[in-house]
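Can you give me the bound-state structure? Components:
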Amino acid sequence: MREVSETDGDTVEERGVDRYDPGEIEPRWQGKWEADQLYRTTIDPDREKFYFLTMLPYTSGDMHIGHWYAMTPSDARARYLRMRGYNVMFPPGFDAFGLPAENAAIERNIHPKQWTYSNIENMRRQMRSMGAMWDWSREAISADPEFYRWTQWFFLQMFNNDLAYRKMSPVDWCPHCNTTLAREQVWGEDRHCERCKTPVIKKDLEQWFFRITKYADELLDFSILDWPEPVRILQTNWIGRSEGARAVFYTEDGDPIEIFTTRPDTLWGATFMVLAPEHPLVEKLTTPDYADAVHDYIHQAARRSDIERETIDREKTGVFTGGYAINPVNDERIPVWIADYVLMTYGTGAIMAVPAHDHRDFEFARKHDLEVRPVILPSGVESLDGETMTEALPDYGTMINSGPLSGTPGELAIERTNAYLEEKGIGDAAVNYRLHDWLISRQRYWGAPIPIVYCPTCGIVPVPEDQLPVVLPDDVEWRPTGESPLKFHPTWGHTDCPKCGEPAKRETDTMDTFMCSSWYHLRYLSPDYDEAPFDPKEYDYWMPVDTYTGGIEHATMHLIYTRFFHKVFRDLDLTEGHEPMLQLRNQGQILGPDGQRMSKSRGTVIEPDDQVRAYGADAVRAYLMFGYRWSEGGPWNADNIQGVVRWLNRVWNLVLGTAGLTAIDSDPAFARTLQRKMHQTIRQVSHDLENFEFNTVVSALMELSNAIVAAREAGMAGTPVFNDAIETLLLLMAPVTPHIAEEMWARLGKPYSIHNQAWPEYDPEMAKEEEITLVVQVNGKVRDRIIVPADIDEEQAKAAALASEIVQHHMGGKEPRRVIVVPGRLVNIVV
RNA sequence: GCCGAAGUGGCGGAACUGGCAGACGCGCGCGACUCAAAAUCGCGUUCCUUCGGGAGUGUGGGUUCGAUUCCCACCUUCGGCACCA
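Here's the bound-state model for the whole set.
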C-alpha cells in the first residue's frame, strides 16, 4: 500500500500549505456533522421530500468494499439532491436476523444476539467512516423487539385476512442450514440454498405460507415504476404467467383428474395422460398387475429428484399404472401413466399428453409405443400421419380430427375450444403461474417467532395483538438438529390458549428474514413509534420511496416480497398507492483484484477499513465512482485508485495554494475559457449525478480542476473568475468527497457547512462555445479542422470548408456532388 | 433450449438524438527537479506506414454522404430460468 503523496510543487510550499491529511480531516468533520445533527431529517411541508433508500446491510460482521460501492455513490446522489433543495431522507439500518448468527453461536459459542449486536457496532463505525449523510435518528434494527413486534403484527394481518395459511406439502429443505426455504431462495441448476450453496432436498412438512399468488397479476404490472428492464423481466419470468385452459378428465372409477394446458385446441389429440409420481390419485389408479413397477418408479423418482439432478435431455422414463381415464371431448378411453417429467409443483401435477403437438409427449409416446394423433394442421402442411411423424409439431394451425371443432382456423382455435369446454361443463379458460406461495416458516432460532398458538381445543389461535411481541428467549440451546431450537426450550413453548385459557403450545418456527426487509422502509419513518408499525404522519410525508438502490440479486426475492407486502397493506388500508419504491437502480459488484469474487481463502478481500486508512474515505468514495460503470462493477485495482488520490492532492494544493489571493482579470479570453468550462462542468455533473453516471461525474471534476490549474499557470490566480471557479469546484465536489470539500470550504472562510449550500446553477449562455472546430470531411474522411464561430450558418460553413487548401487537395480538382453541413459540427463534401 | 446484459488502446473506461473514436484516469516512454531515488511537474502515448497516407469500436453483411450508435446473421463472456404442460 502506498503512502499518501507529499506536497505539490514549490509554489505551495512557499505559501506554507500543510499536507492533505484525510486521517485527520475526515473524523473531525464526521464528528462535527453528527454533533450538529446536520443530516437529521424532519417533516417539512415547505420543502419537497425525497426518500432515498439503499438496501439495508445484513449484519454479517465486517463491511465489504461492496457495501461502500452500493452506498457511497448513492450517498453522493442523495447529497446532490439535498443541495438542490429537496428534503432528503437517507436512513441506515440493519437486517439483523438470520442464520449466520446461529452458526457463529454454534462454532464459537457466542450468543447470536451478542454476535449480531457487536457486528452492528462495528458496522455503524464503518458506515460513519463513509462520511455518508445517514440520518441515524431513523436507524432500525430488525432483531429489536420493537421492530419484530410489528413484523409479527404484519403476520397477524396476513392471517386475519386469509393471506397466511398452514399447509402440509413437499418443501425445499436445506440440509446444511437445517431449515425449509421459499422457492425463491433455491437457486441454480443444482437447486442450491441461496445462502450456503448446499443443494436442497424435498421434505414433507407442515409450514406457513403467504398467498403471494393472489397478487400475481398485479405484480406483473410495472406501469408506474421506473425500474430497470432486467429486473422487470426477471420478475415477469419468475411469476411465469401462462394462459390456457383447465379441463377435468375422469378415471374409470369416476375420480376427477384436473389438468392445465396452454393448448386446449389440441384436446382431441390427447392419447394418454401422465401424472407426476407424487400425484395423489396414482395409488388408486394403479392396478395390481402394475403395482410393483409403479412403486419402484415412484421410489426411483423420489431418489432422483432428491439426489441426482435431472437433465433436460435425459430420456423420458415412466410406467403405465394400468388405469384409464376418459377424454371428455371425445369419450375415448386413454391410458394413464406416471412419469417424472411431469412435476407436482407446476399446474395440477397431471397433464393430458398430446404427442403429435408436444415434443416431450412425442418423445414419451415413441419410447412407450403410444398413439400419436395429429389434430392440428399448421399452414403449409398438407397432411399428417401419426404413424410416420418424426417430431412433434407444436405450431398453431387449423384443427382437424377434432369432432365438432374440426376446421376451426388457428387464430380462433383456442378461443373456440375454451367456449366449447365451458358450454359442455368440461373446463374453462384459465391462467396458471409459475410463482408459488411464499413459504415463510424457518426452523431456526434467530428470527421473529411466528405469533401463533396451537390449542388442543381451539386449534390454530393467533396471539392477540396486545400480547405482541412474542419475545424470542435468550436462553436457548443451538443444536443443528433440523428442528427449531425453540422446540427444546423447557418453558417458552408452553403457554395458555388466548381463546380458552387452557394450556397450549407456541409455534416454535420463526419467520423468514425476508419478512423483515419487506417493510423495514416503513419502520425507518418512525423507529420509536409504538402505536403502529409506523407513524401515519411520517408516512404521509415521506412515502413512497423515491429512489431505491441495491443489487440485482434480490430481483426475485426481496423486491417481489416487498411489492407484495405493500399491495396487501394497501388493501388493508394501511398504506396508499400501489408501489413502495418508485425508482430502482442496480449497482454492479466489485470483484477481487484477480477478477473473481472476493474470497477470504484466496486472500482477495478488500477491506474498506484498510483502504480508508491508506487513502482516506474521500479517495475511496471517489475511486469507487470513477473507476467503474456503477451498474457493472469490476475488479478492484490498487493502481487506479492512485489517480484519484493524486487528484485530491492536486485540488488541495490548488485551492489552498491560491486561497485569499485577489487580482484583476488581465486576459478576458482566458477568463472566458475558464468560465465556460465551469458552467459546462455544472451541467455535466448535475446530469450525471441525476442519472447514476458517477464515473463521468469525477472525470468532469478532474477536467475542471485541470482547467483551473492551467488558469493558475497562466497567472489568473485570485481573479474573480478564478475564485468563482474554485468555489464552484468545491460545491460540485461536496457530494462526491464531502470531507475535503468541507475542509477547503472552511479554510476559504466560507460559511459552514458546504453541505447546506445551494447547488450551483448553470447558465446555458455561459456554457456556450463561441468558437467551434468545424470538421471537414471529403467523402466521409476527416481532412481538415477549421476554427469557426459557433453560430456560423450553413453557407458560411460550406464556404469555409471549400476554402481550405487541404480540402481542395483531397477533392483533386473535382466538383462537389453534394455538400452536407451539420450546423456546429461538420461539413462533408462528396465528390 | 429460452430470456437478459456486455464485447471500444497494454488496462479501467468516455462518446448528447447517426456527425472529430479513445474524454478522464492507470500504466508506459522521454524530459525537468535531485548527488541519487521517491514524490511532484512538463511533453508524448490506438495500430501500421514507403510519412503521401492507410486500417481500426467482437465477426460478416446491410442502410446512409457519414455507423461504437440503426437493421440482419453469427461468435464470445457473464447472469437468470430450465421437462412450466
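A couple of observations. Chain A has a mean pLDDT of 91. Chain A is about 35% helix and 20% strand.
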